[in-house]
């Protein structure tokens, strides 16, 4: 029986371990940059809002400078629905003073929770395509769902849903799943708003054209559309604004549909349980002022809710204008969402 | 340190395993219980009465079974070819890259796979150029390609490691007896490949069964829906806790049942004539003399198999790297945010991988005692399976459960980093267990009696026997755990706040903010980082011959 050769003693191994420890331990500390200030406003929002390039950092800095002794503490959650889930789970014990990043489709459900306070913000002067009546939610940006197309792959895009349904076979689309994605749900409602009871049939006719249905916007736009998997992708009418203003290319444009485009309004609200309710209301009001709004067009790639004048990037003036603005009321969406999803599932898997 | 624990008096054999199991249970079972309690009364009738759920379960089972079959069936020839061609140019690098496919974020993998196999991809363009009907990616094809891309390399890697541990005596015998390739495969290679196959099958099935974004995006439409998607929908979209918990329990039941069945399979032992001896590598250069001789055509086939496998794994990665060489390369690389994210990622991954290692070795020390010394093989294997539980819990359920669990005691957000690290460590545990298991059992089975008679124990035993035998697998496990943590987005997405940015989170944010070229660079950078972490840790822990 052979005896294994003895390994040499290992001072080296120990040295490595010591070095590793010495490297790891002190480095742990700077991870937790504790925040202490007199008044802290905790804002639940979604990831991209607070990313380095999102509106979050600018709004935080501007609001903190304005209020003097307060700190805005953003908590990034995985999605709009994730924000709502979290406050629903926490109930009145929530740490959040503000939820920011719900949209019109979640408004009725959020309101039903009874956790939100009235905003006491005058929204009458805001520039929105619809009349704003909610006393709880403050709109901070809006946009229209639209198909973005690659002008190098498609010279004349379909000019309507009907034209899309009748277009040549190679005019294919990438869409997102209404069960996991905001634009996905937007398309579902868009088709419902245009076709009503015939929506299921339209979905069935649309099937051969759908390359795939992705989990979220990023997979659709980044992994597939930019890889040339289809000439059209479901996105926002404002998406080309970013490409034109920052990437300085006109290659990607939104297709204007004659039936009109479905509106998405993003909103924020204060929590009734907040210890800092007056400050939270101040923040909500601040959201609709030009210092905060100027970060919206290129930060969130949506329309601001106030007239920014010259601060609005020039490219935003070259975006498509919807022939008509489509929207279903938050209550109708709340009451029918589940049935419409089932209808879509049924039509898509027929 | 683990060695010292191993050498505690025999009455304490259960301690390391119990500690490891406690950590695992605290982070998996307890959150589930918290969810159950919050959900209130479950209505199983609602679940069973829904024909859609039935379809979803059937589809999940079908795609997972096929994915597992394809991954394993393809991994065997690849592992054999690699074992037979130790001097294939770039083999070490290739084997390392094999570990990378599993650890890259889904989003990046989808990008690479679409770039190669998509409607406009390299593969279909080539087919088109030579007049062959293009491959339709979206649908079952896409799911299978992606799942094989993730799992075949892992399986091949584990199988290769098993083949490389075939004692030199067996090869010597095979050569002396003049065995044909077929009988060599039947008598030596297959029996040794079979041992890890059951475990691998369970692991891969579980990964594919719970697959989410891959199935949705490449599956072509809602026809391709797994239970995981339904759970996400129930929780996030409908905020229907009872439904989400019921579905999670169904998923758990299927996977636990499968794991249980896998332990009923008789443990395959390598053929009777394998005298315990040092593995081939320990005898140095002379070992090559006993390497079976292969005919020209066999070698050609081997090289062809390796080349195809390399192309399959490398092309999607290359596509991502190619996309990252754009005009934004320099600005991203010099961005302080990128550098900070790299530091955060490396630190978190380093700590998570050490934790994984501690959990894996701790669990296996007790399991080994049960399986090898006490003869309770099955009980030992059940215990070991407990380390896999995390794979079966949907991240969104785990996140919600942990949140419910910790909320009365602590501010969950301030614990975010700790939670991310521990969850990442747990997510890597099944892989680490799979890699270290066989060598640890072997070390005990082959050497226990001799060591006892020689009176070698304690630190000396660890230094002289265990460490040299399991050092290489440990290196592989820690490297894998670290790169897996570095590439993971699911845990950080659950608890992340804007205060800690890792590279995957930065990638996601850049994408969400339309910084698509910057996102591509970040994705390429993440690939390079995962690979470097892998190579460095494997070398550092596994030794220079790793």
Brief description of this entry?
The complex is a heterodimer of chains A (350) and B (546). Chain A is α/β, with parallel strands linked by helices. Chain A has helices at residues 11-28, 47-50, 56-67, 80-90, 104-112, 161-166, 182-195, 199-206, 217-224, 239-245, 277-287, 290-293, 296-299, 330-348; strands spanning 39-46, 70-77, 98-103, 116-117, 138-150, 173-176, 210-214, 232-236, 252-255, 261-271, 303-304, 325-326.
How is the topology of this model organized?
The complex is a heterodimer of chains A (350) and B (546).
Chain A: H1 11-28, E1 39-46, H2 47-50, H3 56-67, E2 70-77, H4 80-90, E3 98-103, H5 104-112, E4 116-117, E5 138-150, H6 161-166, E6 173-176, H7 182-195, H8 199-206, E7 210-214, H9 217-224, E8 232-236, H10 239-245, E9 252-255, E10 261-271, H11 277-287, H12 290-293, H13 296-299, E11 303-304, E12 325-326, H14 330-348
Parallel strand pairs in A: 1-2, 1-3, 6-7, 6-8, 10-12
Antiparallel strand pairs in A: 3-10, 4-10, 5-8, 5-9, 5-10, 5-11
Helix pairs in contact in A: 5-14, 8-14
Chain B: H1 2-6, H2 15-39, H3 44-48, H4 51-84, H5 91-98, H6 106-117, H7 122-129, H8 140-164, H9 168-177, H10 181-209, H11 213-219, H12 227-237, H13 241-264, H14 296-324, H15 329-333, H16 336-373, H17 377-385, H18 395-406, H19 416-454, H20 458-487, H21 490-495, H22 503-512, H23 516-542
Helix pairs in contact in B: 2-13, 2-16, 2-18, 4-8, 4-10, 4-14, 6-14, 8-10, 8-11, 10-13, 10-19, 12-13, 13-17, 14-23, 16-17, 16-19, 16-20, 19-20, 20-23, 22-23
């Amino acid at each position: 029986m052979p005896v294994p050769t003895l390994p040499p003693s290992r001072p080296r191994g120990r040295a490595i371990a010591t070095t590793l420890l010495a490297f790891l331990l002190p480095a742990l500390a700077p991870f937790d940059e504790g925040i202490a200030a007199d008044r802290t406003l905790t804002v639940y929002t979604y990831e991209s809002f607070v990313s380095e390039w999102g509106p979050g950092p600018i709004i935080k800095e501007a609001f903190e400078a304005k209020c003097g002794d307060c700190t805005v503490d953003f908590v990034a959650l995985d999605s709009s629905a994730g924000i709502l889930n979290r406050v629903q789970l926490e109930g009145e014990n929530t740490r959040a003073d503000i939820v920011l990043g719900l949209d019109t489709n979640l408004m009725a459900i959020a309101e039903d929770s009874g956790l939100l306070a009235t905003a006491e913000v005058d929204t009458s002067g805001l520039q929105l395509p619809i009349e704003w009546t909610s006393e709880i939610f403050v709109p901070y940006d809006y946009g229209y769902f639209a198909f973005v197309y690659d002008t190098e792959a498609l010279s004349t895009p379909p000019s309507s849903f009907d034209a899309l349904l009748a277009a040549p076979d190679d005019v294919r689309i990438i869409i997102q799943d209404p069960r996991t994605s905001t634009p996905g749900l937007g398309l579902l409602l868009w088709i419902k708003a245009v076709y009503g009871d015939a929506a299921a049939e339209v979905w069935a006719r649309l099937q051969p054209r759908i390359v795939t249905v992705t989990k979220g916007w990023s997979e659709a736009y980044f992994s597939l559309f930019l890889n040339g998997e289809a000439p059209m992708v479901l996105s926002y009418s404002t998406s080309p604004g970013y490409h034109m203003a920052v990437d300085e290319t006109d290659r990607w444009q939104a297709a204007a549909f004659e039936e009109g485009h479905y509106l998405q309004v993003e909103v924020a609200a204060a929590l009734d349980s907040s210890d800092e309710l007056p400050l939270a209301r101040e923040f909500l009001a601040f959201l609709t002022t030009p210092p905060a709004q100027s970060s919206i067009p290129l930060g969130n790639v949506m329309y601001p809710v106030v007239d920014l004048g010259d601060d609005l990037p020039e490219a935003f003036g070259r975006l498509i204008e919807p022939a008509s603005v489509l929207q279903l009321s938050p209550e109708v969406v709340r009451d029918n969402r589940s049935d419409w999803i089932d209808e879509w599932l049924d039509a898509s898997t027929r | 340190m683990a060695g010292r624990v191993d050498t505690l008096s025999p009455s304490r054999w259960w301690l390391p395993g119990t500690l490891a199991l406690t950590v695992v249970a605290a982070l998996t079972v307890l959150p589930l219980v918290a969810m159950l309690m919050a959900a209130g009364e479950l209505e199983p009738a609602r679940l069973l009465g829904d024909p859609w759920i039935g379809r979803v379960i059937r589809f999940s089972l079908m795609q997972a079974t096929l994915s597992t079959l394809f991954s394993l069936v393809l991994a065997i020839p690849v592992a054999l070819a690699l074992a037979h061609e130790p001097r294939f140019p770039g083999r070490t690098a290739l084997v390392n890259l094999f570990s990378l496919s599993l650890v890259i974020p889904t989003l990046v993998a989808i990008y690479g796979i679409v770039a190669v196999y998509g409607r406009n991809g390299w593969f279909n363009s080539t087919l088109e150029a030579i007049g062959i009907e293009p491959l339709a990616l979206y649908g079952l094809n896409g799911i299978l390609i992606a799942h094989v891309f993730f799992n075949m390399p892992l399986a091949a890697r584990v199988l290769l490691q098993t083949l490389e541990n075939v004692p030199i005596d067996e090869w010597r015998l095979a050569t002396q007896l003049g065995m044909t390739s077929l009988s060599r495969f039947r008598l030596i290679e297959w029996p040794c490949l079979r041992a890890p196959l059951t475990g691998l099958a369970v692991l891969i099935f579980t990964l594919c069964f719970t697959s989410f974004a891959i199935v949705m995006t490449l599956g072509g439409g809602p026809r391709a829906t797994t239970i995981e998607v339904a759970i996400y929908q129930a929780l996030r979209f409908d905020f229907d806790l009872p439904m989400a918990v019921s579905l999670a329990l169904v998923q758990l039941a299927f996977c636990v049942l499968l794991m249980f069945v896998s332990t009923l399979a008789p443990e395959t032992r390598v053929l009777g004539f394998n005298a315990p001896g040092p593995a081939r590598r320990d005898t140095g250069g002379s070992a090559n003399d006993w390497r079976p001789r292969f005919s020209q055509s066999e070698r050609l086939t081997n090289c062809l198999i390796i080349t195809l496998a390399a192309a399959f794994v490398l092309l999607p990665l290359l596509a991502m790297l190619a996309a990252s060489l754009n005009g934004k390369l320099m600005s991203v690389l010099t961005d302080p945010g990128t550098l900070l994210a790299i530091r955060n990622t490396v630190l978190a991954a380093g700590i998570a991988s050490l934790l994984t290692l501690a959990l894996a070795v701790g669990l296996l020390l007790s399991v080994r005692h049960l399986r090898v010394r006490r003869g309770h093989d099955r009980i030992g294997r059940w215990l070991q399976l407990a380390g896999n539980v995390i794979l079966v819990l949907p991240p969104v359920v785990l996140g919600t459960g942990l949140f419910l669990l910790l909320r009365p005691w602590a501010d969950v957000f301030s614990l975010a980093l700790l939670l991310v690290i521990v969850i990442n460590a747990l997510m890597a545990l099944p892989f680490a267990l799979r890699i270290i298991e066989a060598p640890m059992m072997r070390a005990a089975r082959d050497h226990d009696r001799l060591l006892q008679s020689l009176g070698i124990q304690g630190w000396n035993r660890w230094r002289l026997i265990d460490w040299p035998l399991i050092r290489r697998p440990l290196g592989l496990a820690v490297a894998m755990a670290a790169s897996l943590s570095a590439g993971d987005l699911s845990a950080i997405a659950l608890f992340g706040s804007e205060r800690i940015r890792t590279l995957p989170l930065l990638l996601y944010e850049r994408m969400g903010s339309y910084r698509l070229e910057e996102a591509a660079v970040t994705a390429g950078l993440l690939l390079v980082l995962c690979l470097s972490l892998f190579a460095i840790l494997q070398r550092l822990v596994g030794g220079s011959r790793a």
